[in-house]
Amino acid sequence: MKKVAWLGLGLIGLPMASRLAAAGWKVSGFDVNPERMKLAAGRGIGAANTAAAALEGAELVFTSMPNEKVFVEVLSALRTNAIVIDTSTVGPQASAKVAPSLKTYLRAPISGSVGHAEGGQLTTFVSGPRAAFDAALEAFKTYSRVQFWVGEGEEARYAKLAINLMVAVTCGMMKEALALGTKGGISWEKMLELMGESVVASPVVKYKLDPVRRHDYTPTATTSLVLKDVDLMLAAAKAQGMELPLAAVMQTILRQGAEHGLAERDFFSVVEPNSGSGS
Prior knowledge:
Elements: E1 3-7, H1 13-22, E2 26-30, H2 34-41, E3 46-47, H3 51-55, E4 60-63, H4 68-77, E5 83-86, H5 92-98, E6 104-107, E7 110-111, H6 114-118, E8 122-127, H7 130-143, E9 144-151, H8 155-183, H9 188-196, H10 203-213, H11 223-239, H12 245-262
Parallel strand pairs: 1-2, 1-4, 2-3, 4-5, 5-6, 8-9
Antiparallel strand pairs: 7-8
Helix pairs in contact: 4-5, 8-11, 8-12, 9-10, 11-12
């Protein structure tokens, strides 16, 4: 069995690592949260006492970090000759900061929810050395439906932020459409039905229709997490000398939602009229 280290067994890191273990890879995992370690042990992942212990003998080292601060701290401290594959959502500037300290580095953020991770249906965007991508492709295929190699540098970071921008704006679009339709006398349930049968019924819209219908905002991605992503989009755009007006609007909507108690609920909770964001 090929040996893999997985650092960061959070909401989406754990099912991704579990897919590798189920496919026959020998996965050694580490997370600072003991509860996540217990969950990992129940899913075929070997529990390492430290990050350094997890790295021993690994051919591939996957990382899944919650924010840029932790990402920089962890990846800057890695000492390994293995291919390092980071799946976190971070900006290109932070990613470029850690690159010189890593011998072989693949940026491999993903698109999809926890459900997609559990079912191996994620999309992964990868940039870095093409030979390293080819070497890791078998592993990528255990947790993703499709794998894109997009360049030698930070291209995957831009790909992830660009796709997440479309997801975030879809949430804002649904919020305003619900507000307008219900003000016009159409019921919440009927508006959602109309959306699901219209030309705007993208996969993300269809995926969210049922929970929004039930006002169930159990998180697949929290409001605070998506707000963090939007902050990264705007910072990346500023560094390129450009503006993202729609991202700026979503930043306001998500921030107001977080301030009104929705920070740890699913980000689609901001479609509700009482979410504090003006509709």
